[in-house]
């Protein structure tokens, strides 16, 4: 989808040669000029446009308006969440082959940069269509979107962030939606290589031999039950001086999780094709970086394999040696995500990172704890946790901090190895995070459990592209922190000055 930002009055919007015009109407009944302004006043006066974000009224070829279709939709006071609601509702009513060029007119509100981005992300989400393995699906007809605002200069950065976020979210959705036989570890590596064609991005792909040479016994153990060879994808985005410490993003890339010998029940097992949602979000974030080119260095690590039951598969009770040297008793082969991530976290240390954030569809327990609204955020570092939480609030891609008290690690003790890979059922998302923490040494590390947020089940089954918006915002904030922006523009306090 092609976005364009324009300063646009309501009177000018009426003359635009587009297939559809979506006008965001503020809750404080506005006075607007011209034919369009009159329509809005009349709709309100005749009580045909209720007040409340998302309430709308549509018209076809109204007099004095060039566009064939018109949707007037309430957007509250223009805050990001109201705008999101308004745009989703309006776009859902415009999914028609004749609507290829659309203008979103927000000029009656003073939208913040965040709200402009929210509008764009919501618009892309509402018009998204997955067609790769369903050629008969209605494709997205919408090709061109004019974002009309009161003052384009004032929200340019938000618009650019919106465009890049949409590109990243859509890249992530595409790969997460592809079924396991169309998104193998090798396919994911190819997707990463495709991104490496863009300026600033470099990708290395390691296979089983190289991963064995690195001593990644935990990652190898998960992969050994599958015919598909594992891939360890290492991506580099360089936007700052080489000497600058990178942020490392680690994405869980299980392209299908059967549970292994600890086999999962059949119901909804198909959804375990989404078990590479973390990997997809790292790929998507790199796609966004290529668009935005922020002044920061980022490394992306994706350990990717299938988790299958097989004659060669790991068995409950097997003990493996991780790259860190710590041994692990695999009590449940379905707790495989942490096994591939622990070796990738050990590998991350070689980049002497400024922070390491892993992203994983790690536990069903996190779905029970937080549902589909917020991702689970775990970090022993207050500053990093705050930065991620705030990036989530700002981008509307929410997360919630969970505890990491050492007592939660008790259940991971084993008589046969340095640790087991599971504890009891209680606090399952936290004990999983405690397992990962054993491999982070002193790194400034955070973990995002996206098991509840990476995809939707039921009739709307499909990937969400989360947490790409959060990650992009976090990286932009970090880049800005380096640039030494004025205190007012800073998303949070700087590290305490050295005495
Ligand atoms: N990929 C799953 C987690 C998952 C389950 C995400 C359901 C979303 C929905 C993960 O590999 C897994 O199987 N975790 C186990 C851990 C348990 C064996 C300690 C789980 O959550 O049941
Ligand atoms: Mn599993
Ligand atoms: Zn899994």
Structural commentary:
- With about 500 residues, this protein is α/β, with parallel strands linked by helices.
- The protein folds into 2 domains: about 1-150, Leucine Aminopeptidase, subunit E, domain 1, CATH 3.40.220; about 175-485, Aminopeptidase.
- The protein is about 35% helix and about 20% strand.
- It has helices at about 10-15, 35-45, 80-90, 115-125, 150-175, 185-195, 210-215, 215-225, 275-290, 335-350, 365-370, 380-395, 430-435, 470-485; strands spanning about 1-5, 20-25, 55-60, 70-75, 100-105, 145-150, 200-205, 230-240, 245-250, 255, 295-305, 320, 325-330, 355-360, 375-380, 400, 420, 445-450, 455, 460-465.
- The strands form 4 sheets. Strands 7, 8, 9, 10, 11, 14, 15, 16 and 18 form a 9-stranded mixed beta sheet that branches. A 6-stranded mixed beta sheet has the order 1-6-5-2-4-3, covered by helices on one side. Strands 12-13-17 form a 3-stranded mixed beta sheet, with helices on one face.
- The radius of gyration is 24 Å and the shape is elongated.
- The N and C termini lie far apart (about 50 Å).
- Manganese (II) ion (MN) binds near residues 257, 259, 307, 334 and 336.
Summarize the model shown:
With 499 residues, this protein is of the alpha/beta class.
Compile the SSE list and pairings.
Blueprint: E1 2-7, H1 10-13, E2 20-25, H2 34-45, E3 56-60, E4 69-74, H3 80-92, E5 101-105, H4 113-127, E6 144-149, H5 152-177, H6 185-195, E7 201-206, H7 208-213, H8 217-223, E8 231-238, E9 247-251, E10 253-257, H9 277-292, E11 297-307, E12 318-321, E13 327-330, H10 337-348, E14 355-360, H11 364-370, E15 375-378, H12 382-395, E16 399-401, E17 419-420, H13 428-437, E18 445-449, E19 455-456, E20 462-463, H14 468-483
Parallel strand pairs: 1-6, 2-4, 2-5, 5-6, 9-11, 9-14, 10-11, 13-17, 14-18, 15-16
Antiparallel strand pairs: 3-4, 7-8, 8-11, 12-13, 15-18, 19-20
């Amino acid at each position: 989808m092609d976005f364009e930002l324009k300063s646009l009055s309501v009177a000018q919007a009426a003359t635009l040669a587009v297939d559809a015009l979506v006008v965001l109407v503020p809750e404080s009944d506005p006075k607007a000029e011209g034919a369009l302004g009159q329509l809005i006043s009349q709709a309100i006066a005749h009580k045909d446009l209720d007040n409340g974000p998302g309430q709308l009224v549509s018209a076809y070829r109204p007099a004095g308006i060039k566009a064939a279709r018109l949707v007037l939709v309430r957007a509250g006071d223009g805050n990001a969440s109201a705008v999101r609601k308004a745009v989703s509702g309006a776009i859902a009513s415009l999914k028609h082959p004749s609507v290829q060029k659309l203008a979103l007119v927000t000029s009656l509100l003073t939208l913040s940069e965040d709200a402009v981005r929210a509008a764009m992300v919501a618009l892309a989400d509402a018009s998204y269509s997955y067609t790769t393995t369903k050629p008969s699906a209605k494709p997205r007809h919408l090709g061109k979107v004019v974002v009309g605002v009161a003052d384009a200069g004032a929200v340019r950065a938000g618009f650019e962030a919106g465009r890049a976020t949409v590109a990243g979210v859509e890249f992530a959705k595409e790969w997460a939606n592809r079924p396991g036989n169309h998104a193998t570890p090798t396919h994911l590596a190819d997707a990463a290589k495709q991104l490496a064609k863009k300026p600033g991005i470099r990708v290395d792909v390691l296979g089983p031999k190289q991963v064995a040479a690195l001593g990644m016994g935990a990652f190898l153990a998960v992969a050994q039950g599958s015919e598909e060879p594992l891939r360890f994808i290492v991506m580099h985005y360089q936007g700052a001086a080489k000497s600058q410490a990178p942020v490392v993003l680690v994405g869980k890339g299980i392209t299908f999780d059967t549970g292994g010998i600890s086999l999962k029940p059949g119901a909804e097992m198909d959804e375990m094709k989404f078990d590479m949602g973390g990997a997809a979000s790292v790929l998507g974030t790199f796609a966004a970086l290529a668009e935005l080119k922020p002044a920061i260095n980022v490394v992306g690590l994706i350990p990717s394999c299938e988790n299958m039951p097989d004659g060669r598969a790991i068995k409950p009770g097997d003990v493996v040696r991780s790259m860190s040297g710590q041994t692990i008793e695999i009590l449940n082969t379905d707790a495989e995500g942490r096994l591939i991530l622990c070796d990738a976290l050990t590998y991350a240390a070689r980049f002497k990172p400024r922070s390491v954030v892993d992203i994983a569809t790690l536990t069903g327990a996190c779905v029970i704890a937080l549902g589909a609204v917020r991702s689970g955020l775990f970090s022993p570092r207050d500053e990093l946790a705050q930065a991620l939480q705030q990036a989530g609030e700002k981008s509307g891609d929410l997360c919630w901090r969970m505890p990491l008290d050492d007592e939660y690690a008790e259940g991971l003790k084993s008589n046969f190895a340095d640790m087991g890979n599971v504890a009891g059922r209680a606090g399952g998302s936290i004990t999983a995070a405690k397992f990962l923490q054993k491999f982070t040494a002193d790194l400034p590390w955070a973990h995002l459990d996206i098991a509840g947020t990476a995809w939707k089940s039921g009739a709307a089954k499909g990937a969400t592209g989360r947490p790409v918006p959060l990650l992009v915002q976090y990286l932009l904030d970090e880049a800005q922190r380096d640039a030494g922006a004025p205190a007012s523009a800073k998303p949070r306090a700087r590290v305490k000055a050295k005495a």
